[in-house]
Specification:
The structure is a single chain. By secondary structure, this protein is of the alpha/beta class. It folds into two domains: about 120 residues, Rossmann fold (3-Layer(aba) Sandwich); about 110 residues, Winged helix-like DNA-binding domain superfamily/Winged helix DNA-binding domain (Arc Repressor Mutant, subunit A, Orthogonal Bundle). Helix content is about 40%, strand content about 20%. It is built from eight helices and twelve strands. The chain has a five-stranded parallel beta sheet, with helices on both faces. It comes from Thauera mechernichensis. This is Response regulator transcription factor. Keywords: DNA-binding, Phosphoprotein, Transcription, Transcription regulation, Two-component regulatory system.
Length: about 230
């Protein structure tokens, strides 16, 4: 089930019509309050969230959702402002699309997010493990990141997937395509750069340096650290 949180009836019809053509069930909520009340009874697999809602700012809705729920979140916004996009990703959105958008682009992003939240088949599931690097500790199974001083926090699913990609191949240049791990997102999409920036900020909290995640211009990114798994 996909929840569409959109007050513009014409845009809502465009989104739901596209979802129907590709076989996705959906429900529409014209206000943030109605959407949040529905979450008390049932969570969707993914929510498509407009930022310009009539009763509350979409960023506030996003913050409330990420504090209590774990499901896919795609921002669909008319705000063509990098600050809003970065803030949305930092608050826990999985991706964003700017209006007006092509229906095929919307579906590609919906599919990409839904795949991230699908449990892996048991035969392919990665064994739980703990990675130690540059004084930090990361638990694969719980997404828990522990600083050198013992401060703990839990990463989002998107952040964890990105960090695991670095930890599994340390001291190697990883292209944007490799970090996207074959998802249905254009290699020219810059959202991976925003995710790397957000991950760096996790390590910079408390006076630490996130410089061990290095940008290799024209090639991609590299984790410059020794990693041990246990």
């Amino acid at each position: 089930m996909i929840h569409v949180v959109e007050d513009d009836a014409a845009v809502a019809r465009l989104i739901t019509g596209t979802l129907e053509r590709f076989g996705y069930r959906h429900a529409v909520f014209p206000t943030g309050g109605e959407f949040l009340r529905q979450l008390r009874m049932q969570s969707p697999d993914l929510a498509i969230l407009d930022l310009g809602l009539p009763d509350m700012d979409g960023m506030e809705v996003l913050q409330q959702v990420r504090g209590r729920h774990r499901f896919g979140l795609l921002i669909a916004t008319g705000r063509d402002d990098t600050h809003d996009r970065v803030m949305g990703l930092e608050l826990g959105a999985d991706d964003y699309v700017v209006k007006p958008f092509e229906p095929r682009e919307l579906i590609a992003r919906v599919r990409s997010i839904l795949r991230r939240y699908q449990p892996e088949p048991a035969a392919c599931a990665q064994p739980p493990g703990v990675a130690c690097f540059a004084g930090w500790t990361f638990e694969r199974g719980t997404h828990r990141l522990v600083s050198p001083e013992g401060v703990e926090e839990t990463l989002s699913l998107a952040e964890s997937q990105l960090l695991i990609a670095f930890l599994e191949r340390p001291n190697q240049i990883l292209s944007r395509e490799q970090l996207l791990a074959g998802r249905d997102v254009s290699a020219l999409d810059r959202s991976i750069d925003l995710r790397v920036s957000r991950l760096r900020k996790r390590f910079e909290q408390g006076g630490h340096s996130g410089k061990f995640i290095k940008t290799v211009y024209g090639a991609g990114y590299l984790l410059a650290a020794t990693v041990t798994w246990r």
